[in-house]
Design a protein that fits this description.
Layout (H helix, E strand, L loop, with lengths): L1 E9 L2 E6 L2 E2 L6 H14 L7 E6 L5 E6 L6 E6 L5
Parallel strand pairs: 1-6
Antiparallel strand pairs: 1-2, 2-3, 4-5
């Protein structure tokens, strides 16, 4: 499984998204791109097993168990290359 972070224009600035869920808004493209790369890199850090919760695009929350060593592949896609 590959987790794809997309960087693009968002809410008057720039942000990154995972699926339909956007990050906070950043003032410029380079800062949003750096934040997306940081988020993608953190996906590779092993840790303890945990219960995680996250909000889905429809506003509902999902809870699931993740193993500390079960890490996805990640990529950052720059949807706004012209910035």
């Amino acid at each position: 499984m590959t987790v794809s972070y997309h960087v693009g224009r968002h809410d008057g600035g720039f942000g990154y998204r995972l699926g339909d869920v956007w990050s906070e808004t950043f003032a410029d493209h380079d800062t949003a791109l750096a934040a997306a790369k940081s988020a993608a890199q953190r996906q590779h850090l092993e840790g303890r097993d945990a219960e995680i919760s996250y909000q889905l695009a429809d506003g509902n929350w999902k809870v699931e168990h993740v193993r500390g060593g079960d890490r996805p592949d990640t990529e950052v896609i720059d949807d706004d290359r012209s910035a």
